[in-house]
Amino acid sequence: MSASSDQAGGQREAVPRAVQTVLDALEKLRFGAIQLTVHEGKLVQVDITERHRYPN
Q1: Is the entire prediction scored with pTM above 0.70?
Q2: What is the CA radius of gyration of the chain?
Q3: d(Cα 28, Cα 26) in Å, to the nearest integer?
């Protein structure tokens, strides 16, 4: 397989994987934040900050 074929296939797989990562985080996260980092119009990083709340 050529390098251009690998890159094209990787880009097609990256979008559903990125969306699934965000959906999984939303399902698991009760309190917190999800930060998406975009470079040149492409999602490159997902940061998940989880907060744990304890009753007084």
Answers
A1: no
A2: 16
A3: 6
